[in-house]
Amino acid sequence: MIQSIIAAGFLEWIQYLWWLWLFIVAWFFYNWAREHLAFSPILTLAVAAILIFYLVIEHPIFGSMTLLGWTLLSSGILYLLPLFLPMFKKR
Amino acid sequence: MYALPVYGILDVFTDLKFVLQVIVFSYILFWLYMTFRDVQVLFGLGAIVAAYFVLLNPISTTVLLVLFFAFVLMGMHFQMLFQFGLFPLLRFFGVEMEHPEMVEQQKMQKIEQKLMHGQELSADEVSFLEKSQRKQMDYQKNMQQYMRPPT
Known about the structure:
Number of strands of chain B: 0
Largest interface: A-B, 22 and 22 residues
Radius of gyration of chain A: 19 Å
Helix content of chain B: over 70%
Largest sheet of chain A: none
Largest sheet of chain B: none
Oligomer: heterodimer
Number of strands of chain A: 0
């Protein structure tokens, strides 16, 4: 089973997806720096470099958690949850 | 406690602490720039003061910024999130977070709707109805007593 998965190049694809995800997280932090420090391009680059080094290269899990948590909080996903409650209601 | 550095947990903590300080400082700079955009001197002095606070009192500065963020910037969003996202979920699991008067009102509305459609009430709803009717009668009795002219 595992052999066939490896043979199909699944792990390689997972790796590509992981790289793509890291790129998205890095862009998120660069964008944050760009939005908040627009008055100084050098400061933008410096802060973006610090954020990307620590939260993407050194601790990618924490960086991903930041992005996912922020998306969860700022989007309306959490408002939607109670809409599914009637599905579990006992009659 | 002594095992923490072995697994690199303290290193992660130190790194994240530094990153948090950078984010806090950037955010304060952003706010200072938005406020003193037309007065560069004040922006510069403010940046120095902000750096002093972030470097020498990092914990209290971070806590203050988080509170500001949670109550001022995201306050309304969090309130809606609690009211329309969290409380209905908690109510489903039997935890009531709404004001008790509000809950009674909603219960009454539900009973009235059921009565309008001619549906049967559950034992809990019947007892609730009786209790509220008794409460109303007591109230009226008290009011009559109060309104009665002194003899």
